[in-house]
Amino acid sequence: MSTTTVLWTAPAVLGLAVLTQATNDPLAISTYLAVLTGLLTWRLIPAVADRFVAAGLSGKDVNKAHQPIIPESLGIIAATLYLICLFLFIPFPFRQWFPAEPAVLSLRTFPFQRLGEFLAALLCLQSMVFLGFADDVFDIRWRYKLVMPTVASIPLLMGYYLSDGITYVVLPIPLRPILGRILDIGILYYVYIAMLAIFCTNSINILAGINGVEAGQSLVIALSVAANDLLYVNGPDRPAAEVHLFSLYFILPFIAVTTALLWHNWYPARVFVGDTYCYFAGMTFAVVGIIGHFSKTLLLFFIPQIFNFIYSAPQLFRLVPCPRHRMPRLNPATGRLEPSDASLATATPTGLAVVRTLARFRLVRVATDDAGTPLRVSNLTLLNMLLVHCGPLPENHLAALVVALQVFGSVAAFTVRYQLVTFLY
Ligand code: UD1
Ligand code: MG
Fold this sequence. Notes:
By secondary structure, the protein is mainly α. The chain has 2 domains: 19-293, no CATH class; 302-425, no CATH class. The chain is built from 16 helices and 9 strands. The chain has helices at residues 3-22, 26-54, 75-89, 112-138, 142-152, 154-163, 176-179, 187-206, 213-233, 238-265, 274-291, 295-300, 303-316, 349-360, 382-390, 395-418, and strands spanning 58-60, 69-71, 168-170, 182-184, 329-331, 336-338, 341-343, 366-368, 374-378. The strands form 4 sheets. Strands 7-9-8 form a 3-stranded antiparallel beta sheet. A hairpin with a 5-residue loop joins strand 8 (366-368) and strand 9. Helix 2 runs antiparallel to helix 3, helix 3 packs antiparallel against helix 4 and helix 4 packs antiparallel against helix 5 (142-152). It is globular. Uridine-diphosphate-N-acetylglucosamine binds at residues 59-63, 72, 205-206, 208-211, 269, 272, 275, 325-327.
């Protein structure tokens, strides 16, 4: 064991021992483990980065003048330490049910469903990390990328079914005269959960391609989820307090490892997060949204990603050609990023009509020939759209702008959820 390992491990274990004696509060222990995991992630990433390059896990940082080779998929370190943290944490939320004397655990009172849901959520996250890493190694095709989160979410669906299995939705006021206040959508609720997992994972992966943007957006969403949870944990509604507490157990270590990863991934990036991280982040959000029963609020935190997905749809569904990479392009003369573009040579008539409409609202930049026929269009991503509007920007300014938009989106989400919602529900 190296001296550094001893220096780290001894006080960390001692601290945990002291804390578990001093308090029974799982949230305090969760916070402690999260901070430790964050620090460990922060230390470990630069220590192992070179081994990733040696193992062939690297990518070109395309928006730098010399396009350096950067270690790729370091999200696997963040995700693995996160999983270890949660594994270590498993006994703590259930400690109050452990018998004081060596005796048999009361099978009548122990919350097996809660434990089942917790383990199912862990299995779901672990599967997603595994599939995400497989994607980084084998560069899986898009149609399979869509299926991967569906498979990974099956344990979560089962856990949800066992824990309470609520499949009804509360309808907004305008629909109530026709459909009533509550509508049981049955099996469709499970389809919705699976689609939420597909959306959360892929939407982060496609708002990507410049230093810091994947981890930056995820950090803001995670902080928003935690802030929302904190509104409930001490509230009078005990069932709500309990599920939001569980959401916090999952989101606190996520905030910690993401902060550490972002530190190394922010401009100029020393490491790339990889698809592993994007899937891991998206699935963590889907998991907390489902077990915390706040998937609609969660989707409000995804406003930039929803916009980016809808805006991307013509390319994702191939109405407009979609190049392998759509991130903005560096202009070496100015050191600023400019919108990248795609040829319209093989665009469908519907695709061309969409491009013309977007151009009318100045949402894309179109290059035309002398006769005014569109030849190329800026790639349909939020990053390129911001550059079309704001003009060329340095890479770190563009990443900061996306993070600022995400913060603005969360402020709007809280306003809608806690102010305007009374008009709808
Ligand atoms: C998704 C996007 C793709 C975008 C890519 C960037 C869609 C349909 N796909 O593809 O348009 O170009 O993410 O991640 O929208 N890279 C950088 N700087 C960064 C981050 C990544 O140069 O800050 C480059 C590196 O070469 C890295 C590669 O992007 O190796 C990673 O791309 P990958 O995650 O494999 O792309 P996809 O997720 O398939
Ligand atoms: Mg990716």
